[in-house]
Amino acid sequence: MPKRRILFIVNPISGHRDKSQFREKAADVLNGEDFTYEIVFTEQAGHATALAEEAVGVYDIVAAVGGDGTLNEVARGLIGTETALAVIPCGSGNGLARCMNIPLSTDKALHLLTQGHIERIDTGSVNGRLFLSVAGIGLDAQTALDFAQDPRRGFLTYAHYAVNNYFHPKQETVSITFDEKETLTCSPMLITFANSNQFGYHAVIAPHASLQDGLLDTCILERPPLVTIPDVVAKLMDGRLDKSRYLTERQAAHITVERPAAGVVNIDGEPVIMDAKLDVRIAPQNLKILVP
Predict the structure, then answer these.
(1) Residue 29: C-alpha distances to residues 24, 81, 87, 203, 219 (Å)
(2) Among candidates 103, 132, 93, 81, which has minimal Cα distance to 288?
(3) For the chain, is the Cβ count within 10 Å smaller at the N or the C terminus?
(4) What does the alpha-carbon distance between residue 12 and residue 3 come to, in Å, rounded to a whole number?
(5) Each residue of 145-168: pLDDT tens digit?
(6) Where are the domains of the chain?
(7) Can you tell me the distance from the alpha carbon of 155 to that of 16, in angstroms, rounded to the nearest whole number?
């Protein structure tokens, strides 16, 4: 049997984990008789995509070692190919890994390379920009922007900005059209387009979302009164947000959003400035990924 060829693309600055010992950890887990692999560390934004594109046809699996932003960069180079993505979660929120039950431990995630199997999943896009887990506007997008500008990582930093943006909202009235059939006009706290079920940190924004159903779950969350925040947060963290009166959900394969002006969009936790009009689409089964 030929050896499985793996390229590890490591983002040295994602999350808060030390990755200086990653080579040693990989060597401890991967049997040299079964695998041949290379480890490359990224040097700048966009480097992971270029490395993944070069790996297509050369490697069987490209393993992204980092957070959701790193996974997004790597996946951009693998879309529509036969080279599979593997996830070694080393970021802050690790939303895709949590959704797919991929171990957060580096050692256990490496063992998945010897034990897992490959499936195909859907991916989303906003104005042509890929996302794997979630994209959105409103509070989560502004929080992603604030979080990206702070050198501190972790849940507490993210929560600080989320709370600050709740008390200082930048809400706008938007028009949302689903599959060219239904249009809603609203001024919500946030709108999330969910391919997976969560932001990360176990914050489940879309309890019914599936990575393999050919649909995006649009979650429109009104700004809840202050006294109801504990209940809303509890539902968010235990997967019951669909029970909240402040959440409206729609499933669609194509969503268009008209907003007053260009602004920030959350793309897998990364803030991206986009035009006022957003074209949101699902691409079914176009990414191969290693899963438990």
Answers:
(1) 9, 27, 15, 31, 40
(2) 81
(3) N
(4) 27
(5) 887 777 776 677 777 887 877 878
(6) 4-115, 129-285
(7) 11
Strand partners, 274: 263
- Amino acid 57 reads G
Task: Provide the CB-side half-sphere exposure for 153 (13 A, CA).
Answer: 15
Which one is the CATH code of 4-115: 3.40.50.10330, 3.40.50.2300, 3.90.79.10, 3.40.1790.10? 3.40.50.10330
Contact 184, 193 (CB under 8 A): no
Give the torsion sign (CA, 249, 252, 258, 259). Answer: positive
Which of 134, 89, 79 has the alpha carbon at shortest distance from 270? 134
Query: pTM of the full predicted structure?
Result: 0.89
**130 contact partners, CB below 8 Å, separation of at least 6:** 72, 75, 76, 79, 123, 124, 267
- Round to whole Å and give the CA distance between 269 and 11: 15
**CA dist list (Å): 43 to 62, 87, 89, 243:** 17, 19, 19, 44
CATH architecture for the domain at 129-285 = Sandwich (2.60)
DSSP secondary structure of 34-78 = TEEEEEEE--STTHHHHHHHHHBTTBSEEEEEE-HHHHHHHHHTT
User: Minimum mean pLDDT among 11-20, 145-154, 235-244: which range?
Assistant: 11-20
The token pair at 231 is 């209940």
Rg of the Cα atoms in the chain? 19
Per cent of the chain over pLDDT 70 is 97
6-37 per-residue burial string, b: 16 or more CB within 10 A, e: under 16: bbbbbbeebbebebeebeeebeebbeeeebeb
